[in-house]
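Archive transcription. Copying these from loose printouts into the bound notebook so they stop getting lost. Printout 1 of 2:
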Amino acid sequence: MKRLSELAPGQKAIIHSFENDEIFLKLMEMGCVPGEEVLMEMQAPLGDPISIKVAGYQLSLRLEEAESILVDTNKNQ
């Protein structure tokens, strides 16, 4: 299990769960639901924000938000 913020650009993973209940609903509304595949597209030069592809569209997340999303990379190896 990894955090979404730990993925390298180009790496895929499956969303497993969320650690932060405060942003859980916000992330779910944006398509970040458990079981959904996510692709880490790129990271800003200073590391924040990151750009991911999820549910067929691009999404920018703050690093703090990405750290609260747990992903499973084993299913995509």
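Printout 2 of 2:
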Amino acid sequence: MSTAYVLINCDLGSEEFVISELKSIEGVIEVHGTFGAYDILAKVQAELVEKLRETITWKIRKITKIRSTLTLMGIEGQG
């Protein structure tokens, strides 16, 4: 199982909309609003790294009102 954490910045006031959209995407297993440099944190899992990449690139990053993302890939066998 591959895991990634996606840090998201979105348009001001659109956090609830983006969180709702993220929760409807298969593979997104946790979503949290945050304070600080980023607005939202999403945890994404998939069996294959390629599927994880597709989810982030073609589903998450295409959500309207998202301005930018930063993806942190989990290391297998750690934790």
